[in-house]
Design brief:
Helix 2 runs antiparallel to helix 3 and helix 7 packs antiparallel against helix 8. This protein starts with 11 loop residues before the first strand and ends with a helix. The chain has a two-stranded antiparallel sheet. By secondary structure, the chain is mainly alpha-helical. It has 9 helices and 2 strands, in the order ββααααααααα.
């Protein structure tokens, strides 16, 4: 009897919407915001090493980053805020890997992440590549959110968080309501609500 041939490796994921997303060559046509919201609301920040009865999800982190970007730059147009909300959207497929592990994986991870983000942007009529100045503002808001989450949720000391993320020029107490871990269903609902607010003409 001839040896059985190994099955072809699968490079796509089936979504709850029924879409089949190719991870190596993602098409904007296979991306749905409901799939993104569902996935991000169930992916834990900090590998789940946070205080609270529920995880602090990437969906909540995305809302926090968009809020910080809006608060620090009130002149940002809606399209830019939508870009901020979706800055970690590829993680609905590839998960939220902590920075040290991303560094280990190197360009392979970054390439998959970049292709997914470009496809997501095109799906929602955003530039495939975020313009430099906007990317810098979003990164600043992202690092501010990471600092706050690290101190309030992930048991970092202030000095430790400052070393890794820098200390943001923000009133941290004002952001405490954004740091209450939510159920996946609630985080998903709030993410979708904010998405549709920003997408509306």
């Amino acid at each position: 009897m001839a040896p059985r041939k190994p099955a072809a490796s699968r490079a796509w994921q089936r979504m709850l919407s029924g879409r089949r997303l190719d991870l190596l060559d993602p098409s904007p046509l296979d991306i749905e915001i409901e799939d993104i919201a569902h996935g991000l609301a169930r992916v834990a920040r900090w590998n789940g090493q946070t205080h609270g009865p529920s995880i602090f999800s990437v969906a909540q982190h995305s809302l926090l980053v968009e809020h910080i970007a809006r608060s620090t730059h009130p002149d940002l147009p809606r399209q830019c805020l939508l870009t901020a909300l979706l800055h970690d959207a590829p993680e609905y497929v590839i998960g939220d890997m902590i920075s040290p592990f991303k560094a280990v994986l190197g360009n392979t991870y970054q390439g998959v992440e970049s292709r997914l983000l470009a496809a997501i942007h095109l799906r929602f009529s955003l530039p495939a590549r975020t313009p430099g100045p906007l990317e810098k503002r979003i990164k600043t808001a992202d690092r501010a959110a990471a600092f706050i989450e690290a101190v309030r949720l992930a048991h970092f000391s202030v000095a430790e968080a400052e070393q890794f993320f820098g200390r943001p020029d923000l009133r941290l107490d004002d952001l405490d309501p954004w740091l209450v871990p939510q159920s996946p269903d609630e985080a998903q609902r709030r993410f979708l609500q904010r998405f549709f607010e920003l997408e509306a003409p």
